[in-house]
Amino acid sequence: MNVRIRPLEAGDLTRNGELDSLEFNTTADLDVLQGVIEQDRAVRSLKTGLAIDKRNYNVFVAGASGTGRTTIVRGIVEETAAAKPVPPDWIYVYNFKDKESPHAISVDAGKGREFAHEMDTLVAWLKEELPKAFRGRDYQEEVQQVVSSSLARENEFFAALSKRATDIGFAVKSTKTGLITVPMLGEKVLSNKEYEALPDSDKKEIEERRRLLEPYIHEFVARTRTVEATTQDEIKKKQLALARKVVSGPVRKLKRRYAKIPGIVEYVTSVQNHVLENLGKFIREENRPAPPEAEEREFVEYKVNTVVDNSDLKGAPVVVEPRPTYYNLFGKIEKKVENGVYFTDFTMIKAGSVLKANGGYLLINTNDLFAYPLVWENLKSILRYRQTTIEDLGEHLGYLPTSGLKPAPIPINLKIILVGPPHVYEILHRYDEDFRKLFQVKSEFDSEMPRNSQTVAEYARFIATTCRNEKLRPVDKDGVAALLEFGSRLVESQKKVTLQFNQICNVLIEADTLASDVGVDVIGRQQIEEAVRQREFRLSLLEEKVREDILEKSIFIDASGERTGAVNGIAVYEVGDYLFGKPNRITAAVYAGKGGLINVERESRLSGRIHSKGMFITTGYLGAKFGQKRSLSLTVSVCFEQSYGFIDGDSASSAELFCILSALAGLPIRQGFAVTGSVNQQGDIQPIGGINEKIEAWFYLCRERGLNGSQGIVMPKANVSHLVLKKEVVEAVRKGLFSIYPITTVEEGIEILTGVEAGRMNGDFDFEPADSVFARATETLKRYDAADRDDDEDEGRPDDEADEADEDGEE
């Protein structure tokens, strides 16, 4: 075959050799990698966002999963946070004026836990010291004096009452139920029996005298009550004085210690007043102690709830929230059940990640964030108003309140770092106005880096670091080269290598297991390549089924011979994270008419917009190439044979064009070749994706049918730098059993496929030489045009003239 384009050499199909300048036998000889590989743009952007201590300068970290973005971001944020001051603790204390609205108080880091402990110590001390003080001899003697004095006065009043009663003829007795008056006969007190035996006149006289006594009894009772009230007041004053003396000492110390903290002094003062007003809580009868649970609730007013404890921090907090539910982020009010009844109090208020990160940094992955309802809107609200309130979800929604507590809001000053894929950033930036305002900094991580001697050296050190961190066997130089090839294949480039390090780590771990199975101490190329093969094997069931259908000729694909109007194209399918190529037969049927280019897939609604665009481009190319001198009168039907699924992309547009040119020129296309590449309206062949998978899919089919040196693939020259082909393909090319032709124009491609010169347009808009592809296609188009003109003339004649012409023609 006499063509202008030479096939690629084996050395063009992959890249190696950068490790030759590195002096090491295994990765055990290399230093650990410090810092980040080739993410300068992302790191600088992130550091800028962290350095700006203003509102709305939150950061969105965009990048593909597996690039190490979260690990890198966390390391940089922790380094930045270490140089920041430790933020204060936050505590909730009882509100003695409104028990449903506990106060929030900010205290220095570590002081929250300390103050809570001191309050517990104070209460425990008071529970012991107050009863002890009230049992003291001095206090008891003072109380006894007050009581004795009171009893003495009451006895005086009683003696006066008794004398007055005797004068009236009655005796007064004091009983448990009160005072009773008993009539007397002389100096003798009458019994009930004797009283009943008296005549009615005597009884009447006694009752009249009893009425005279009643005012004196009322006076006695009133004076006695006054004495008792005075006595109780005096005892209470002594109790308060003693209690104040006991309480004031430790309270005074607390006030001095926390004098500079707003809110603490007021709270401690309220505690003192409450203790003095509720001494009964502390002074119980020894034989009637309260149950532990009841006692805990009874003294809850004096508890301190340290919702944020920063005592163990060395800098600003860095919180990574792996499960950003509403309560995990914003906190919650817990509840307890006792005897079937729910109850809660301010000690059950629990902080969420937002509050724990207050004064520092909060990292959230967007894949997790948007999995939970209401979280995003509330998070934006916190950033807008710079405060957070811990409440039940029902309260937040405005219905179904489940708790009467309304904790005081806490001011918020934190920086949020969202980590997510680039498309999430684009969606939020386009459709969420709040996001554009609140997240002013974007830090974008690349998924690939240039492949040069410097980056390869860093890559080798990264592999060494991974082996040490994961406790894997070291990798020899050839194994590192195999990993580099794998990394370049992931990004389809000889000039770049992947930064999705999780893929590299996974292969290393699996290769280490293979090395263990065969009992070697070093991971080599053999283990790396076998690990990659096994990963592909686990994912390639569908690919094998497709290949079986082709080999069993259930799907018609020729790998030898020639066909006119038929070419082998290759599609790429993605199943999860696995790509594979699938050969397809593309056919074209051409005939006279004005139907233009008919895309069978589009007409049957199996064509995507990009594929349809490719067909329109093909129409433009045909018109520009062959419609300069005459209008095109043809109909072309192009079809992906035995394709029953959706087709999109324009990588088959060059194959479709070659197929059409073959049908127009009447020249067969060699079926040992497959074609991939897109085309523009000027006939330039443009690069496409999945080039390695496409070439390998066609190679495997040809190998199963039998390689004979006449098979190969036609691909865009712009894709040559993307070739990172498997070893078996490279070896077949080296042995001359398989060819890969890089092309830049339609002319080059059609010459390779047909073995006939494409042709050149002359000044008359015709093509030469006469037997070229374009010249033959032009002749076909002329024939179609003539047929179309005849049809137009026939349609324009009257019926009788047409009949006469037919008769003349028959003669």
Shape: elongated
Measured between the Cα atoms of the first and last residue, the distance is 50 Å
Question: What is the CA-atom radius of gyration, in angstroms?
Answer: 49 Å
Q: How many domains make up the coordinates?
A: 4
Give a short account of the largest sheet: 7 strands, mixed
Indicate the proportion of strand residues. Answer: 15-25%
Number of strands: 32
Assembly type of the chains comes to: single chain
Question: Total number of helical segments?
Answer: 28
How do the helices and strands line up, and which of them pair or pack?
Blueprint: H1 40-51, E1 59-62, H2 69-82, E2 89-93, E3 103-107, H3 111-134, H4 137-168, E4 170-175, E5 178-185, E6 188-189, H5 192-197, H6 200-257, H7 264-277, H8 292-298, E7 304-308, E8 318-321, H9 326-330, E9 332-333, E10 336-338, E11 341-343, E12 349-350, H10 353-356, E13 361-365, H11 366-369, H12 375-385, E14 387-388, H13 393-397, E15 410-411, E16 415-420, H14 422-431, H15 433-438, E17 441-444, E18 448-450, H16 453-469, H17 477-490, E19 496-498, H18 501-518, H19 525-539, H20 541-551, E20 562-564, E21 566-575, E22 578-591, E23 596-599, H21 600-603, H22 609-626, E24 635-640, H23 653-665, E25 668-670, E26 673-675, E27 678-679, E28 685-686, H24 691-705, E29 712-716, H25 727-734, E30 739-743, H26 746-754, E31 760-761, E32 767-768, H27 773-796, H28 799-810
Helix pairs in contact: 1-2, 3-6, 4-6, 6-7, 17-19, 18-19, 22-23, 23-26, 23-27
